[in-house]
Design brief:
Layout lengths: L1 H38 L3 H19 L15 H12 L2 H31 L4 H55 L4 H27 L6 H26 L5 H20 L1 H12 L2
Helix pairs in contact: 1-5, 1-6, 4-5, 4-6, 4-7, 4-8, 5-6, 5-8
Length: 283
């Protein structure tokens, strides 16, 4: 019972964090657009330095230590490598890692291409870009809110499946709109909102599922999960950004392909993850 409570608490924390995180891409583009309009594009970098310094100050003076008991083993490269190897040998973790990495790669394809597609291809102003970006981010916020209500009844696995379906549906609509009405910006906004709503269903649940087998090594599992998905997403986003030219097609196809791969990983590993969950419960 305590383990179930811990999982529910972890999911509640991830959902709350996801909802707060969704506010940033809604609010931040407006701030950036105003700064660029009034003071030029360099002012955004000044704002980044100031915000980063404020974050460091808050973490240094106000963030409390939450670790009750420190690990007896000294931290070293060798000890971290041993822990990461143990985590990476868990097949359920690798399955969830594949789901989060593919969905994150799709997200970074959108982030890499959004400024080009919305400003250069659709001709939006900095403030117009902020409005368009906010529409998609509201979709992510809606997805996290829906997930918090659905996961209790449907469970983590089915909720991830619903989310992967949303990823594919949104990216498929985007592809159809690009093929049939490439100049229609509203179709792009609506389809990316559906995609990001699916992402809001996928990420918190997949992250919780990846960490569940490691209650005593959650930090190591979380860091490995984050490092792999961030590195793969950044590399894919850079590739999409390099391929963008006179058309949004590289972004659209990249989002659809990685969304389909996320759905495929979820579908092909359901039995494996169920077996690993049963084995963990009987240990």
């Amino acid at each position: 019972m305590s383990e179930i409570t811990d999982v529910l608490d972890a999911l509640e924390g991830l959902h709350a964090g996801g909802q707060r995180m969704a506010l940033a891409p809604i609010v931040a583009p407006f701030g950036g657009g105003v700064l660029q309009t009034l003071f030029g594009w360099r002012s955004n970098f000044v704002a980044l330095v100031l915000c980063g310094g404020a974050a460091i100050a808050v973490a240094w003076w106000l963030l409390p230590e939450t670790l009750r008991v420190r690990a007896p083993e000294r931290v070293s490269v060798l000890s971290m490598a041993r822990v990461f190897r143990t985590v990476a040998q868990n097949r359920a973790f690798l399955a969830f890692l594949g789901i989060t990495s593919m969905s994150y790669m799709a997200l970074f394809a959108w982030l890499s291409g959004a400024s080009f597609v919305l400003r250069d291809f659709h001709g939006l102003s900095p403030i117009g870009f902020a409005w368009a970006f906010a529409v998609g981010s509201i979709g992510y916020l809606a997805g996290t809110v829906i997930a918090a209500r659905v996961v209790i009844r449907a469970g983590i696995d089915r909720t991830i499946g619903y989310g992967c379906g949303g990823l594919v549906a949104g990216s498929a609509i985007m592809l159809v709109m690009q093929a049939l009405a490439p100049g229609t910006a509203a179709g792009l906004y609506g389809s990316i909102a559906i995609f990001l709503a699916g992402l809001g269903l996928v990420l918190p649940q997949a992250m919780a599922g990846a960490l569940m087998p490691f209650p005593d090594r959650a930090g190591a599992a979380s860091s490995l999960l984050g490092a792999v998905q961030q590195f793969s997403a950044a590399a894919f986003g850079a590739l999409i950004g390099h391929m963008l030219g006179q058309s949004p097609w590289p972004m659209v196809v990249g989002i659809l392909v990685t969304s389909c791969l996320a759905l495929a990983v979820w579908a092909l590993t359901r039995e494996l993850r169920a077996r690993e969950e049963l084995r963990r419960q009987h240990q």
